[in-house]
Amino acid sequence: MSTSAIDETLATFLKSHAPNNAGAETDPVKASQALFPDTTYTDAEKAELNQWLITASHVASPAEDAAKSAERLSSLNTHLSSRTTVLGAKPSVADVALYHKLAPVVSKWSAEERTGEQGYHHIVRHVDFVQNSPLFGLKLDNKVNIELDNVVFKIKPVDAKAEKERKKKEKEAAAANASGATPTTLTGEQNGGQGGQGGKSKKEKAKGLAQAAGDAVAGTVAGKPTSGGPPEGAPTQKKEKKEKKEKQPKPQKAAAVEKPLSPALIDLRVGHILKAETHPNADSLFVSTIACGDAPGTDNTSEYEGQVVRTVCSGLNGLIPLAEMQNRKIVAVCNLKPVTMRGVKSCAMVLAASPKVAEGEDSHKGPVELVNPPEGAKAGDRIYFEGWEGEPEAVLNPKKKIWETIQPGFTTTDGLEVGFDVGVVPQLAGEGADKKTGVAKLRTKEGLCSIPTLKGAVVR
C-alpha cells in the first residue's frame, strides 16, 4: 500500500504544537499512532488517512481558482456533517493536517461564511474541536476565535432515517471490500459548536463542547463506554413515546397537473461564459464556467469570482476556437438533468447551430456557430419562442423525452434568426383556429437571438 509522506510544513507544525514527538515521524500512520497510542487503524482506514493527507495539501490552496476551492470546502463540509473526525470517530494526524491548513482561512471568514445558510458550519465545528480538545493536546499560542453564540443560520439536524440508511450502506460497502467494520460516527453538529451550555461563558462553552466530543471519541478509540451516561454537551438521542392512535385514512393528494408539451417547458436563459478551458480527460470537450442568473445555493452551482455559476461541458473543442469561448454571452439550456462527462459534472448545455446533414453523415463535423443573445441581454434573462411563453420545468424528466421531442424543431431562418419550426413537431401544432404554423422566433425582452452565418441549420 502506497503512503503519503508528511510534508515539511505539517512536520514543522507537529514539532512545534503536537505532543508525543509526533513531528519526528514522516509516515502519517506512524505519526497518528504516536499522537493517539490507544488507537488502532484498519488497512482501509490507513488508506483513507493517506488520502486525507493529500486532500489537506490542496484544500483552500491559493493556487486554485475560487470555484475549485469552494467545491473542495463544500465536499469537506458535507463529509464532516455526520462525523466528528475525518475518519468518523477515530482521530488521526489528518485532522491536524486539515486544522493546520484551515485555521488561518477560517479565522478570516465572515459570520456568513462560517454559519450562514451556505456557510461551512461543520468545518468551523471541526476546527474548534481540534484546537480545544484535550484528545489532540495541541499547544497553540493563537487559536481561531469562534463565537459560539454568533450563528447566522441554524442548520437542520441530520435526518435520522437518512443517516441510518447511509450507515447501513457504508457497512455493506465495507463488508463487500473486506475492509472491516465501519467505525461508529457521531452525528450532528456537536450541538453545532454553538449554544446548549446554559449560562456559561463562551470559553467554558468551548471547553465543555470540546471535552464532550473528546470524551465521546476517546471512548470509541479505547473501546470503552463513558461512565455516568453521556458527558455534558455530547450529542444525545431522545426517543419520545407516542400514544397509539387509531390510524386515520390519509387524505389523498390531488394529482399534479401535467403541463402540456411545449417549447416553454425548456428553461432557456442567457448565459455569460466567465472562462472556458479544455477538458483534462477528453480532447473533444471544453469545460466552461457560466453565470446563468441562479440564486446562491441553487443545486448544481458553485461560486466563481463572486458570481453563482454552473460548470458546463460542451463538445466544441476543434469546432470553435477556445479564444471565442472566453467572456461572452451564449444561450444555455438550464433544466436538463446534470450528467458527468469524463469525471466532470456538466450542469447545463450551450446552444449552437450546425448545418443539416443527410442520414449517415457525420453530424459533428461542423461548421458550428454559437447562438448569440441580443445586445444588452444579461446573464439569467429568460429566453422564449414567440407564442410559446410559459413556465419551464424545474428539471426535465428524462423518461418523458421532452427535450428529444422538441429540439428537432429548433432551426435558423434565412434572416439568421433562431426559431422553432412547429411543422417539424406537428403534434404541438394544435387544431382549428388555434393551430400554430410557421417558425416562432427565439427572443429575450431585449430582442431576437441569432447566429452569424448558418441558414436553415440545426440548433442543439
Automatic annotation (TrEMBL):
Keywords (alphabetical) are:
RNA-binding, tRNA-binding
Q: Which Pfam families match?
A: Arc1p_N_like (PF21972), tRNA_bind (PF01588)
Superkingdom is Eukaryota
Q: Name one GO molecular function term.
A: tRNA binding
- Per UniProt, residues of the TRNA-binding domain are 262-384
Q: Where is the composition biased (Basic and acidic residues)?
A: 161-173, 237-249
Q: Which PROSITE patterns does this entry report, sorted A to Z? A: TRBD
Region annotation (Disordered) ranges: 161-259
Q: Which residues fall in a compositionally biased region of kind Gly residues?
A: 190-199
Q: One GO CC term of this entry?
A: methionyl glutamyl tRNA synthetase complex
Regions of biased composition (Low complexity) lie at: 208-224
Q: Which CDD domains match?
A: GST_C_Arc1p_N_like, tRNA_bind_EMAP-II_like
InterPro entries under this entry? Arc1-like_N, Glutathione-S-Trfase_C_sf, NA-bd_OB-fold, tRNA-bd_dom, Tyrosine-tRNA_ligase_regulator
Question: What is the protein's given name?
Answer: tRNA-binding domain-containing protein
Its source organism is Paraphoma chrysanthemicola
